[in-house]
Amino acid sequence: MDQKGILIVLSGFSGAGKGTVMKRLMEKYDNYALSISATTRKPREGEQDGREYFFKETEEFEKMIAQDELIEYARYVDNYYGTPRSYVEEQLAAGKDVILEIEIQGALKVKEKFPETLLIFITPPNAAELKRRLVGRGTETMDVIEGRLSRAKEEADGIEAYDYFIVNDELETCVDDLHAVIQSEKKKTVRNAESIERIRKELGEL
Amino acid sequence: MDQKGILIVLSGFSGAGKGTVMKRLMEKYDNYALSISATTRKPREGEQDGREYFFKETEEFEKMIAQDELIEYARYVDNYYGTPRSYVEEQLAAGKDVILEIEIQGALKVKEKFPETLLIFITPPNAAELKRRLVGRGTETMDVIEGRLSRAKEEADGIEAYDYFIVNDELETCVDDLHAVIQSEKKKTVRNAESIERIRKELGEL
Hints:
The structure is a homodimer.
Chain A: E1 7-12, H1 18-28, E2 32-34, E3 38-39, E4 54-55, H2 58-66, E5 70-76, E6 79-84, H3 85-93, E7 97-101, H4 104-113, E8 118-123, H5 127-136, H6 142-156, E9 164-167, H7 171-185, H8 193-205
Parallel strand pairs in A: 1-7, 1-8, 2-7, 3-4, 8-9
Antiparallel strand pairs in A: 3-6, 5-6
Helix pairs in contact in A: 1-7, 5-6
């Protein structure tokens, strides 16, 4: 097995349960690192620099863009969001599988820069369940919920850009499926060129 | 999840432990069916028609070829070997994942006819271990062993034609890896067109 970690993009509808799945994946298996985004938006109550986000001034963020220190970035509603390159590269080199939780536009940019990136889309079992989860949070107005559902319809058009489609019905099953998909990816022939070359060389020397 | 089973070709050096791995996989998980080859070679002692092989007369076998009843076939040393189509198709339709244990020429023919076939190559951890296992069997002359090692060198040239490369070091790990790779394959976006279409339709109707 070649030892470098792999880069994974995880996307999915708001309400698919990505946050819970990621949290449980990190608890259950120790070979993952979760990339932390940089943003220019102000910290909300309880958020901590370097935990939820790396909080940056606009000037700092634009300097990161200029110096190619971000794998991808986007601007939403007057704020920048992006993925710092250094953390991702350090973790991959250390053999960790690094997960970016970003949306499709970012996913496609990452795939362009790093063609070996694994793109995974997480979905609830059906649309009624998605709505139920969004309403069940009880923290958002119906307007916000309608907005998220309308966004989900747009996102659904892009699912074919992803490599894998994982249903989050029961949490533990979803986490184990996600882990199996990522670890199986490491068994791909294209990711084992060194091992294959080694065994060829050994056979030649027998 | 779309419910049809998937077709898997398993190849690997003689001495990689394919037989043991397959036996354990079938014991441990119940969603697999092992395809049984047809052959014109005579049964050896202890072999049973419909268990090790379907034993056929040459005329019968050639009729099967003419009627396109074989997914692939080849002739080795005056005998035909081939994969009967009907069993494979029945098992796939019943949702079983069907495994063919065949060599690279057959693997490539199957992939051509059924592009969604998953090609998996199994290898021992290194060439010294391969030799040790072949010698350890104690049932073959050194001439036969040298022949198998020389064949392994040829086979090693074709590994890149396979999708996955699985090392058989410790049996249970290898079996679980194989299971994870096959089951993860079912999570591929391209294999879930129906489910994706369904959730899109549901979102549109909310």
